[in-house]
């Protein structure tokens, strides 16, 4: 999460609908490189995700004095937050918002320090499932080594077939659906 001047931003969107920006709560967080043990970002990059879930993970990381690692590649793709210790490992995957201005622009060339492993040909969900299965099997086998690092496809996953009743007009692709409330009747 950084810019060329060494500072970065992480926007945290609220639960308001994207069609009504005046009703959405937006918090912008600026992070300087000296707040991190290690920084490797593409200059000018930013990411927007839900602050509610991130605060919980951040509170846990601070209380347990565990280092927090954040991996993301571009807006609209998931951000992966990792806490790692000899006794436990936690991964939180959060959806990020797609930048509406980026729809008309090609993705920027990455001449920065961020490098990505070669993209596998499978969809993101297949990669995530195989990674989680590898984590579970390595935990069951009692391996002393570190679990495999995640590799996720850089390609946009194919959209799943959706139920017409659940589709909402004006929904931005790549964003989580609005929360639905059940009144008990």
From TrEMBL:
It holds the Pfam family Rad9. InterPro entries: Rad9/Ddc1. GO terms for biological process: cellular response to ionizing radiation; DNA repair; DNA replication checkpoint signaling; mitotic intra-S DNA damage checkpoint signaling. GO terms for cellular component: checkpoint clamp complex. Residues 1-21, 98-185 are annotated as: Disordered. Residues 7-16 have a biased composition (Gly residues). PANTHER family: CELL CYCLE CHECKPOINT CONTROL PROTEIN RAD9A, DNA REPAIR PROTEIN RAD9. This is Cell cycle checkpoint control protein RAD9A. It comes from Bambusicola thoracicus (Chinese bamboo-partridge). The lineage of its organism: Eukaryota, Metazoa, Chordata, Craniata, Vertebrata.
């Amino acid at each position: 999460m950084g810019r060329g001047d060494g500072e970065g931003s992480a926007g945290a969107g609220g639960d308001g609908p994207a069609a009504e920006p005046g009703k959405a709560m937006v918090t912008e967080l600026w992070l300087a490189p000296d707040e991190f043990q290690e920084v490797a970002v593409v200059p000018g990059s930013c990411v927007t995700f839900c602050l509610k879930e991130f605060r919980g993970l951040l509170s846990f990381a601070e209380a347990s004095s565990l280092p927090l690692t954040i991996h993301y590649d571009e807006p609209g793709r998931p951000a992966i937050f990792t806490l790692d210790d000899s006794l436990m490992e936690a991964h939180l995957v959060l959806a990020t918002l797609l930048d509406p201005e980026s729809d008309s622009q090609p993705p920027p060339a990455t001449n920065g320090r961020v490098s990505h492993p070669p993209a596998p040909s499978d969809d993101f969900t297949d990669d995530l499932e195989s990674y989680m299965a590898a984590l579970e099997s390595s935990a069951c086998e009692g391996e002393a080594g570190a679990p495999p690092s995640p590799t996720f496809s850089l390609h946009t996953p194919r959209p799943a077939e959706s139920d017409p009743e659940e589709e909402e007009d004006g929904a931005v692709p790549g964003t989580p659906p609005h929360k639905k409330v059940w009144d008990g009747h």
